[in-house]
Amino acid sequence: MGRPLRADAERSVRAILEAAERVLADDAGASMEQIAEAAGLTRITVHRRFANRQALLEALAVSAKQQLLDAIGEARPDSAPALVALYRVTANVLRVKNTWRFTLSHATPHTSAAAAVWEEIDTYTVELLARAQHEGLLAPDADLDWTRQVYYALLSEALDRPGANQDPAAQDPDALAALVIDTLLHGAGPRG
Amino acid sequence: MGRPLRADAERSVRAILEAAERVLADDAGASMEQIAEAAGLTRITVHRRFANRQALLEALAVSAKQQLLDAIGEARPDSAPALVALYRVTANVLRVKNTWRFTLSHATPHTSAAAAVWEEIDTYTVELLARAQHEGLLAPDADLDWTRQVYYALLSEALDRPGANQDPAAQDPDALAALVIDTLLHGAGPRG
DNA sequence: CCTATTTGCGTCATCCGTGTATCAGATAGA
DNA sequence: TCTATCTGATACACGGATGACGCAAATAGG
Description:
Two copies of one chain form a homodimer. The first copy, chain A, is 69% helix and 0% strand. Chain A is mostly helical. The A-B interface holds A 29, 136-140, 142, 145-147, 149-150, 153-154, 156-157, 160-162, 179, 183-192 and B 29, 136-140, 142, 145-147, 149-150, 153-154, 156-157, 160-162, 179, 183-192. Chain A binds a DNA duplex through helix 1 and helix 3.
């Protein structure tokens, strides 16, 4: 679109997005003023970068979802057995999801841009699950759409879990990933 | 508190609560005006029954949670084996949760009254799960708090499931209950 | 160092939702 | 029927959030 932003302006955009995540996580109806303050900027500057509230929300959604995609890519899931891939992806996703709790849990894709990234993530997840099914990790007759839905839900719940630690951010993603996958594959019933 | 409401006023209160559920489900930030209109009333009348927006939200929360408790009670869960009880409770809860989607999913208990009902439901659920554990339905070392969390999440997901039917309200609660419990107990993995 | 860009400040207008008050008409219920 | 109660209409005050304007100071980056 326009010319590239200057380095400091770029930093401002980052600061605004991160501040928005923090502030909105605490109060979904927070004002632009509060977000600006949390970013160490003025409301006017925020307005300069994002025409209106809606634009900010959309940018936030796209940014977070892009980070999710990156985290999935970093796990290099296609170069390992499904179970290993599932572990790595889960741990990475938990990290990102923990950082962008508000944005990723209110992920109503009111925009085509956001919807596109979301679609990509969904598709990829189902492919991974299908591979797991072929390798015998999932029941042959398992409904993959339902499984994906459950998987997403477990990811969210794992982060909201009141752990032994006070600070939820300090929970070990690898341990949580193990919990998520174990529950996804076997539920809470006794092991055969 | 005050004297009992007249019959028509009582009906208005019901209409307002039901309208609020419908309207807020579509837009969580909807105005009192919109809610009033949906209830076939004026904003002024809404204000007469609920001093401010917060009061309406709280009344909504208490009402819905009370219906949940009633639904659980109607299942007479203590007079049957844990598995049967679990089925009956799940089916009943799904019915209520489907009617009060918004209210019950944004169940942030900002009030002591709402928190009390919630606490009661939580306690009861864990007790039921503990009974299931004793009867061998759950693994002996299963974390019941985590299991309850997963159970709640599955209930929500089941209602958001895009079924074969267009109308989600038309989904058979018994079939959904079976799906929820099966997933809770065994996950998506192959059966032993 | 010099210029284009960014940012903060003060100020303004406007819209929207909320909450209140009064009065007249309609209705429930005894 | 008759009275207490409920509802609607109109109007007003208030606060908060939004969005836009020009101007001066600070700063990035060639």
